[in-house]
Amino acid sequence: MAHPGNPGVLALQGDWREHLATLADLGVDGVAVRTPEELEKVGSLILPGGESTTISLLLETSGLLPGLRDRLAAGMPAFGTCAGMILLATEVTDGRPDQHHLDAMDVVVRRNAFGRQVDSFEADLDVSGVEGGPVHAVFIRAPVVESAGDGVEVLAKATTPDGVTRPVVCRQGRVLVASFHPELSGEHRLHQLFLDQAA
Ligand code: GLN
Fold first, then answer.
1. Are 52 and 86 in contact (CB under 8 A)?
2. What residue numbers bound the domain in which 191 lies?
3. Which of 13, 18, 51, 79 to mutate to test the pocket of ligand 1 (most atoms within 8 A of CB)?
4. Does 87 reside within a domain?
5. Which residues lie with the beta carbon below 6 Å from any ligand 1 atom?
6. Which residue of 46, 80, 129, 179 lies most exposed, with the fewest beta carbons within 10 A?
């Protein structure tokens, strides 16, 4: 079935409003998605930052989980930031054993790899495919990619407290993930990249 609709933003928990505002700044009407019916109408989906364990639970109680899995398996473009990146992974380390992963990108993601809330930090990162200078990245209890499958392109890396440099922006097909929150720093270029690749 074709899904020609507008981009959706999963609006169960987290900073979904900031994603809708970023889309609006780009002249795009994003749609808040909270129900299976709303998911059916969107053409792509942004999964926001927040708390992946909470969003995982709410995906169950809202009834969204089966339809979301189906849409992603059918190739719906998706963009996950921070908690959204955790949710899109095939495997999560340091997660709750019962938290769902949506298997949309072939990556192993470690939660809270940069430390706790107090260890939040900002950095300027070069992101491959993003022109016009470095991307200002806000990391809040951010995850990192520990390993990525062959089909995954690494677009940016950052160094975790153990001194190892690991992927923090990745793309596989029309799925994009970032460890940080472009939606919180007035950064629009990753959303534009997502919209371009979703088109
Ligand atoms: N550490 C959070 C989690 O596990 C993600 C934090 C964030 O989205 N800023 O879901």
1. yes
2. 7-198
3. 51
4. yes
5. 49-52, 82-83, 86, 111-112, 140-141
6. 129
Kindly indicate the confidence band of residue 2, based on its pLDDT and cuts at 50, 70 and 90. Answer: very low
Q: Is 51 a catalytic residue?
A: no
Is residue 2 domain-resident?
A: no
Q: What share of the chain in percent tops pLDDT 70?
A: 98
Question: Which CATH number characterizes residue 113's domain?
Answer: 3.40.50.880
- Give the model's pLDDT for residue 1: 45
Q: Which of helix, strand or coil describes residue 10?
A: strand
1 part of a folded domain:
no
pLDDT in tens, 103-128: 999 999 999 998 877 778 899 999 99
82 given a catalytic annotation: yes
In this prediction, residues 46-61 reach a mean pLDDT of 98
Q: Is 183 a catalytic site residue? A: yes
Residue by residue, DSSP assigns 71-103 as HHHTT--EEEETHHHHHHEEEEESS-TT-----
Q: How far is the CA of 4 from the centre of ligand 1 (A)?
A: 30
Ligand 1 atom at minimal distance to the Cα of residue 54 = 10
d(CA 19, CA 164): 30
C-alpha torsion 80→153→97→113, nearest 10 = -80
Q: How far apart are CA 169 and CA 153, in angstroms?
A: 9
What domain count does the chain have?
1
Substitution candidate for ligand 1 out of 140, 168, 180, 184 with most atoms within 8 A of CB:
140
**What pTM was estimated for this model as a whole?**
0.96
Please give the mean pLDDT across all residues of the chain: 95
